[in-house]
């Protein structure tokens, strides 16, 4: 599935749905310089293994930037018509913001506003967390609610939205 260069794409899906592989393919197909913004932090061995797996499956040709909090600044620093930027993932970024007690609404709005002015191609990946049961604790409910609001803001601003399940992308917008 090909998208035009210099467009914005939002890819949603559940854990291990194939969303990252699909997003990486969109960036590779662009023919532009490939930038990967990793928002995850390796707090434990399991997360270290996940990060190593993502790096290995992504392969060569990528410039990786690790930005757990300053996502908007990094995107702006890479904004050039010759660049394709993949952000993986917004839910990890949201977790980092919550743990750092940042203003989620403000940070989300800054990201949404930045999308509108980009010259680079941008593909954003996020986990859809609103399809399950209501979480049992307050922090998990707040996370789910923040993610839902962020996803709506991003989906409203991008040119294309895909939902990936079982490795199959479903075009929702664009």
TrEMBL record:
<keyword id="KW-0342">GTP-binding</keyword>
<dbReference type="InterPro" id="IPR003203">
    <property type="entry name" value="CobU/CobP"/>
</dbReference>
<keyword id="KW-0808">Transferase</keyword>
<comment type="pathway">
    <text>Cofactor biosynthesis; adenosylcobalamin biosynthesis; adenosylcobalamin from cob(II)yrinate a,c-diamide: step 5/7.</text>
</comment>
<comment type="similarity">
    <text>Belongs to the CobU/CobP family.</text>
</comment>
<protein>
    <recommendedName>
        <fullName>Bifunctional adenosylcobalamin biosynthesis protein</fullName>
        <ecNumber>2.7.1.156</ecNumber>
        <ecNumber>2.7.7.62</ecNumber>
    </recommendedName>
</protein>
<dbReference type="Pfam" id="PF02283">
    <property type="entry name" value="CobU"/>
</dbReference>
<dbReference type="GO" id="GO:0008820">
    <property type="term" value="F:cobinamide phosphate guanylyltransferase activity"/>
</dbReference>
<dbReference type="GO" id="GO:0043752">
    <property type="term" value="F:adenosylcobinamide kinase activity"/>
</dbReference>
<keyword id="KW-0548">Nucleotidyltransferase</keyword>
<keyword id="KW-0169">Cobalamin biosynthesis</keyword>
<dbReference type="InterPro" id="IPR027417">
    <property type="entry name" value="P-loop_NTPase"/>
</dbReference>
<comment type="function">
    <text>Catalyzes ATP-dependent phosphorylation of adenosylcobinamide and addition of GMP to adenosylcobinamide phosphate.</text>
</comment>
<keyword id="KW-0418">Kinase</keyword>
<keyword id="KW-0067">ATP-binding</keyword>
<comment type="pathway">
    <text>Cofactor biosynthesis; adenosylcobalamin biosynthesis; adenosylcobalamin from cob(II)yrinate a,c-diamide: step 6/7.</text>
</comment>
<keyword id="KW-0547">Nucleotide-binding</keyword>
